[in-house]
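INTERNAL TRANSFER SHEET
From: sequence group
To: structure group
Subject: MFS transporter

Please process the attached sequence and return the structure record in the designated field. Keep the field labels unchanged so the import script can parse them.
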Amino acid sequence: MTTTEPTTPTETRHPSRWLAVAAVTFGTFLLVTAEQLPIGLLTDVGSALTVSVGMAGLMVTVTSIVAGLAAPIVPVLVGKMDRRLLLVGLMGLMTIANVGSALAPNFPVLMASRALVGGAIGGFWAVAGGLAVRLVAPAHVPRATAVIFGGVGAANVLGVPIGTVLGDLADWRIAFGALSGLAFVVLIALLSVLPPLAASQPVGPRQLADQFRNPGVRAGILATFAIVTGHFAAYTFVSPVLQDMSGVDGRLIGPLLFGFGLAGIAGNFIAGAAVARRLHRTVLVIVGALAAAILLFPLLGLTAPGGITLLIVWGLVFGGVSVSLQTWMIKAAPQAVEAASALWVSMFNLAIGLGAFAGGVIVDATALPGVLWLGGASVAAAGLAVWSVRAVTALR
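Return from structure group:
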């Protein structure tokens, strides 16, 4: 894999490059939103294309697995290609793929378009994270990096409600069509504000493999796998859970998921402040609280007030997952941030796909409470990986 090379001291970082940071941020937000958009549309898509809710969940599974595979592979395949052209090309692929989703006459065609979306997501996310050093002055690199990854975090908590509301107000095909239009807008923005971004400094398979010898990185990857798998096993089916288990009116699902998203944004800022002081303890608290919120749903979420309360708590806690785990990986491998981040991006996306798939199997084989038990247990298991490295000084 290749990573973008910092600019030389003679290169000028004009203040307008913050427009480029903003464009890349919007790109990451849009791509991760595209990954999770179908979660709020499962019932509508299933009815329109005559597939079960569990089968419709493959819209998330296929996209996420392809994204997870693409994250380390795309940079290798493109070699030293100008990263500006790469990002523009990937956004073009996103535009075309979502047109395909909007016009899909059947479920197999929809799945093919979702696979293309996954390729765009994995490649874009893996490259975008290393661009801050190319776009702003050294003193502003941490802030620019946080802004770029903020697009990922915001999409993780707002992508589903955006899709749900668009589907409720219009149609699920309109939701995919709108996503395609926005992707084209980002494409134009990237062409307009990104400077040429030549790539060098190869990061090969050996550097990636070496990260697994680092106990902090290893624990972070395991925790990411368990947390994200558990969350998406349950959250992929949050709409039918709220309607069928909690008795929430279907017309309220979109607004409630926006509430989930707003709670998640608040959780992102709260966790961001907390990890700066006590990283290890903060991650443990997040793991415990997220597991509790999911596991308590079949017990306390059987009424509308109980389900809504647990949903907001769930959103608040999950909002802190991305920022805390990203910080964990950076602190665990300060001399190999690029390699550790590539592994983290890959694992995060693979876990989304596995979680959605496992949840679909459980829902079709048993019932909705089963997917909540599975999700909560998986998140709780992440606590073992986090606890195992409590003595590592860098992660305290």
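Handover comment: Residues 141-169 form the longest helix (29 residues). The CA atoms of residues 291 and 376 lie 5 Å apart.
Transfer complete.
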